[in-house]
Amino acid sequence: MSVLRTVWTRLENHPWLTMTLAVLAQTWFALNNRALWFSDEVRYADAYNNLAVNGKWMVLALNGQAYPDKPPVYFWFLWVLDKLTPFDAPAVFFLGAALSGLFFLFAAYALARMLKFDKTTSLASTLILLSTFVVAALLHYSRMDLLFAALIVLSHAVFYRAYTGKNEGWWPVLGFALAGAATLVKGPLGFLFPLVNISLFLLFKGEAKRLLSRRTGLGVLVMLGMLAAWVAGVVLAEGPAFLINTVLGKQILERATHTFHHREPFWWYFAAFPLAWMPWTLALFTAPVKRLFSLSFWGTLWGGRRQAGAKTMLWIMFAATFIFLSSLSGKVFIYVLPMFPPLAILIADDLRTMAAARAARLWTLVGGLWIVLGAVLLLVGDLIPIPVPVRGMGICAGVLILGGAAIVSMRAREYRAALMTCALAMILWIYPVGLLAAPSLDDAMSPRRQALILGDYIEHGYTPFSARVYSGIYTYYAGHDYAEYDNYDKLIEDMNARDKVILVIRASHWEDIEDRLPEFHVIDRQSIAGLVHILAIKG
């Protein structure tokens, strides 16, 4: 026990170094050992190339067309990494993911400290995040969501400091600046989440008037100024009609109210979030939920609302964000990330006072899940319908089983031991996944192989076309833009005007028009993320 306390104390006294070393241990070996995968990684790579090489700094470009889906700040961040480090693409994209994850952990720790939780609870919350399957996976997937969530979480922390202290100082300005930065990473949820949640918190306390300060007004102006600078850049690059119709109309308003993409029912996050939060969703089965059905509990909560503090803020961060996301027309799995840190802090705080029987049940459930997943992977892993052989399945399964057994063995010991075991088990498991399993999935998850064939034919004079294929997934590896079509008649007309043509199309759509293209023959088939894609040529 003395060794455990010594190790924990050292980690606790150096939390920033602890988090840095943990992320480094989990990512250093995997910065350049697999291809970019369908669909976002290859698309973002092409968008980055268009920024770095073709000067598309304000409005991103994908496959030769304007790409207004995302603001540009994350890609600026990648450009800085590209210039300041020895890494080149695609390794720089994975470095960006790893550093975004580290920033996410830093933001979670800062949230806990600014909400007045002690170092023990704050460090414990980051270990919970490190041992979450989704966070571990995102450290190895190139996209901007971890950075987006980190800025949102930091904005919440700063707003709480601003509006609960005796002197708000310049904290409101910093909070709005962080919210503005988040918005420029991925869109308006970046300022809506923190602004809505801090407003609900102050309304609950009866202190909403604190939002009417001069510094709050200045903060709003700073945020609006940041957004206005980008808007001006969009107008200069693409014109006012593009801003109004495409960016504001289609990408923001339509996606929120009547999306053309990822449209799901209201209850979707009730199913998605428990999966995303594994293994810590199992903490629900050890939580004292009976009191939620007691009128006295809710009466006490309402009666003490003016003294509400950090825990109330954390519950609002989780619950209000959950309800807000559920009310949107478009629902995406990854949007749940800003809810992770508040839940991690609440669980970490509960662990400190958890009865021995409850704690033993929790660690048995968490470790048991690892063991079950490992056993399933070991017994039926070969039956998973993956079109390529996956290396290291047995090793991955074995580490899951051994890691779960180690977690279960900690059930009678202090929670610090179990938490460190969880985090260490996750780090160890990522090694066979990152070194063996993930790279062997390239031909099932990445369009690289087929894109290289496409690029070779283009170099030999073939004109490329695509029909009803996810936009821009071949451009980065093919090294060329290509025409994209949804209308079969127009596609066939334009291809008939060319002597040498190469067509990219999904197998299901090829069956629709194969009879109309007698001069074409299929030269390649590849299943990419479960969708069979075809290359067909004429000439």
Average pLDDT across residues? 93
Low-confidence segments, given as residue ranges, are none
**Which range best describes the helical content: under 10%, 10-25%, 25-40%, 40-55%, 55-70% or over 70%?**
55-70%
| Number of distinct helices | 24
How would you write the strand order of the largest sheet?
4-3-5-7-6
The geometry reads as globular
Largest sheet: 5 strands, mixed
Q: What is the total tally of β strands?
A: 7
Number of structurally distinct domains: 3
Q: What is the structural class?
A: alpha/beta
How does this model look, in words?
The protein is 63% helix and 6% strand. The chain has 539 residues and is α/β, with parallel strands linked by helices. It folds into 3 domains: 2-30 and 68-353, no CATH class; 356-443; 445-538, D-Maltodextrin-Binding Protein, domain 2, CATH 3.40.190. Strands 4-3-5-7-6 form a 5-stranded mixed beta sheet, with helices on both faces. It has a two-stranded antiparallel ribbon with strand order 1-2. Strand 6 (521-528) and strand 7 (531-538) form a beta hairpin.
Concise synopsis of the structure shown:
This protein has 539 residues and is α/β, with parallel strands linked by helices. It is built from 24 helices and seven strands. The protein is globular and about 75 Å long.
Task: Summarize the SSE layout with pairings.
Blueprint: H1 2-13, H2 15-27, H3 40-52, E1 61-62, E2 65-66, H4 73-84, H5 91-114, H6 119-130, H7 133-138, H8 145-164, H9 171-186, H10 189-205, H11 214-238, H12 240-257, H13 268-276, H14 295-303, H15 310-327, H16 340-353, H17 356-380, H18 393-409, H19 415-440, H20 442-445, H21 448-459, E3 463-467, H22 475-478, E4 483-485, H23 488-496, E5 501-506, H24 507-513, E6 521-528, E7 531-538
Parallel strand pairs: 3-4, 3-5
Antiparallel strand pairs: 1-2, 5-7, 6-7
